[in-house]
Design a protein that fits this description.
The two termini are 36 Å apart. A hairpin with a 5-residue loop joins β3 (87-88) and β4. The protein has helices at residues 28-41, 58-61, 71-75, 111-122, 139-146, 159-180, 184-193, 205-215, 220-228, 242-259, 273-280, 285-288, 293-307, and strands spanning 15-20, 46-51, 87-88, 94-97, 128-133, 150-155, 233-239, 264-270. Helix content is 44%, strand content 14%. The chain has two domains: 1-152 and 273-309, Rossmann fold, CATH 3.40.50.300; 156-271, no CATH class. Strands 3-4-2-5-1-6-7-8 form an eight-stranded mixed β-sheet, sandwiched between helices. α1 packs across α13 and α5 crosses α6 (159-180). The chain is an alpha/beta fold.
Length: 316
């Protein structure tokens, strides 16, 4: 998730950002749209991709009608180039590839179709690609998350969202480990670890490493390297007070202790009535109310993710 991309025109490094979240209804698409808008305002060339295959709604968050051409046309080879399904959003520097909800089975695209889509996304001539992912832990969703340079796990400060987010990260980590497993025996151990009731007694990724070490000591190093290279980031949405904001730091600690990975807390976006009021009118809140708390937080988040700026919110 930290691989470098070839430079784009102007010398900047191409990046792929993804917004995942184990649970639906947490404002992920609205956040993706606002981040894309703010990055474009910073002068970056941005493409938003609605990768919620089967449930696309990113165009609505941007105040657009359903585009005529979608990712489904590319998947089904109605068009050969992914660039042919790009549409203008009306905001300078920001374009959209709408999701593939226009054909049955979109959420379960075949392996070769997925490989083709991922390959073309990597080749897009742009500064930042933002992938808005669907909810859940299906392989297609996780694979989109894992190709990104910046993997953002979006959560709200509620137990169900936090639990779903933890399951999402655990599934993503096991997916990464399986990809580098050097033998079929090790792949079977990783597969077993994904079942909480497995007969090997594996409950955590650290248990998994211990089991692998007993099976084949030489297989341990590639798995350790992969764990060390996995650096997801949390974004807390709809934060209401300072107590909610602390959850992000607690999640980082929990990931280190229970998953053995170095996650980071990218920042938070405060709860703001402006967001849903704008969405009801099919408008982007960052445009409708640029001085609102939520718009201010998204601007800080965009700057921080682009250049490492500190994102701490000063509470009154």
């Amino acid at each position: 998730m930290n691989g470098r991309r070839p430079g784009t025109a102007g010398g900047s490094a191409r990046q792929i950002w993804s917004l995942g979240g184990g649970k639906g209804g947490i404002g992920k698409s609205v956040l993706a749209a606002a981040l894309g808008y703010e990055l474009a305002r910073m002068g970056k060339r941005v493409i938003l991709i609605d990768a919620d295959l089967g449930g696309a709604n990113l165009h609505t968050c941007l105040g657009m009608g359903a585009p005529e051409k979608t990712l489904g046309d590319f998947i089904l080879r109605r068009v050969e180039r992914i660039e042919d399904v790009l549409v203008e959003t009306g905001f300078r520097g920001l374009r959209l590839i709408s999701g593939a909800s226009d054909f049955l089975g979109a959420a379960n695209i075949k392996h070769l179709q997925k490989v083709r889509v991922l390959s073309r996304i990597r080749s897009l001539d742009v500064d930042v690609v933002i992938l808005d992912l669907g909810a859940g832990t299906a392989f297609n969703i996780i694979d989109f998350f894992l190709i990104s340079d910046v993997g953002l796990l979006t959560l709200v400060p509620e137990p169900t969202s936090i639990e779903s987010g933890y399951r999402f990260l655990k599934a993503a980590l096991y997916r990464r480990l399986r990809a580098v497993a050097p033998t079929e025996a090790i792949r079977q151990i990783v597969d077993a670890a994904g079942d909480r009731k497995n007969s090997l007694g594996i409950r955590t990724p650290l248990d998994l490493l211990n089991t692998v070490a007993m099976e084949d000591q030489r297989a341990l190093e590639p798995l350790r390297r992969e764990m060390a290279a996995f650096h997801p980031r949390f974004v807390l949405n709809q934060v209401r007070d300072e107590e909610d904001g602390v959850i992000g730091h607690q999640l980082v600690t929990a990931c280190a202790r229970h998953l053995g990975i170095a996650a980071a807390y990218a920042g938070s976006v405060r709860f703001d009535d402006t967001v849903w009021k704008s969405l009801r009118q099919r408008r982007l809140f960052a445009v409708d109310a640029p001085t609102s708390q939520a718009a201010e937080d998204v601007r800080r988040l965009a700057r921080a993710l682009s250049g490492g700026e500190n994102l701490a919110i000063e509470w009154a």
